[in-house]
Amino acid sequence: MKSAAGKEKETISLAPVAVRPEFQKQGIGSELIKEGLKACLRLGYDPIVVLGHPEYYPKSRFEQAGKWEIKDPFGAPAEVFMALELKDGALEGAGGVAEYPDEFLEV
Predict the structure, then answer these.
(1) First and final CA of the chain: distance in angstroms?
(2) Can you tell me the mean pLDDT for 76-101?
(3) How far apart are alpha carbons 28 and 16 in whole angstroms?
(4) Would you list the DSSP string of 12-24?
(5) DSSP 8-class letter at 17
């Protein structure tokens, strides 16, 4: 992510979770997110962004990225672009537009 001042902050994006309807409401999605967050932390990432359901991801402590003045590059509604600090202050002073690698854009 690059702030308006040109400062870069390495961040990882968690892909949206999908669970087949017949398996929903069993905690599978929450467990997938929990394990994904653990993997991000093991890899050394403490700030995470996600484009996802605005009522689902806050259950895993995600908040609207606008809180840190972070914007998505796709023009998605503000309520679906969220961020999470796995360590307090990880997004302090971040701001700017999140940048995604080309591979993400090809999906």
Answers:
(1) 20
(2) 90
(3) 13
(4) EEPPPP---GGGT
(5) P
